[in-house]
Amino acid sequence: MVAAAAAVRPVSFRRLGVLLRAPLPCGLTTSRVAAPFPRRTADSMKICQLQLTATRFSKQNNSGEDDELLSELKDKWDAMENKSSLALYGAGAILAVWISLVVVRSLDSVPLLPGILELVGLSYSGWFVYRYLLFQENRKELAGVIDDIKRRIVGDDE
């Protein structure tokens, strides 16, 4: 009991190193002794070194891919004829996202409505799984519908 009270008592910085290296009092486990600062283990140092090495490695290898991507984007930007319409569409998309966020926040503040909408979403998800994903012939039908939509978007009339 006295040893546990002594471990919780504030310790000066000069005695801190001695206290952390001192053996534990008999009968106490490491979880019962309150250390003033967390100890660094060899495993945590290895993880930090591994993350640092992975960060360095990823930055070195992606520079060529980044340059290729930037040059590709620059070529596409130069090939565009009507740049002002792209800027207008981009601004419209940002405005639409902002308006939708405002609407969702206002609907979220209404009592009971978020729970009801969550229930509607879960029930629709359950219906979709039952209708299209549960049986093999329905999965084939869904794949056909998706392929049809892709053909209409791309414009292939095969």
Automatic annotation (TrEMBL):
<dbReference type="InterPro" id="IPR025564">
    <property type="entry name" value="CAAD_dom"/>
</dbReference>
<keyword id="KW-1133">Transmembrane helix</keyword>
<dbReference type="GO" id="GO:0009535">
    <property type="term" value="C:chloroplast thylakoid membrane"/>
</dbReference>
<protein>
    <submittedName>
        <fullName>Threonine endopeptidase</fullName>
    </submittedName>
</protein>
<keyword id="KW-0472">Membrane</keyword>
<feature type="transmembrane region" description="Helical">
    <location>
        <begin position="86"/>
        <end position="104"/>
    </location>
</feature>
<keyword id="KW-0812">Transmembrane</keyword>
<feature type="transmembrane region" description="Helical">
    <location>
        <begin position="110"/>
        <end position="130"/>
    </location>
</feature>
<feature type="domain" description="Cyanobacterial aminoacyl-tRNA synthetase CAAD">
    <location>
        <begin position="72"/>
        <end position="155"/>
    </location>
</feature>
<dbReference type="Pfam" id="PF14159">
    <property type="entry name" value="CAAD"/>
</dbReference>
<dbReference type="InterPro" id="IPR033344">
    <property type="entry name" value="CURT1"/>
</dbReference>
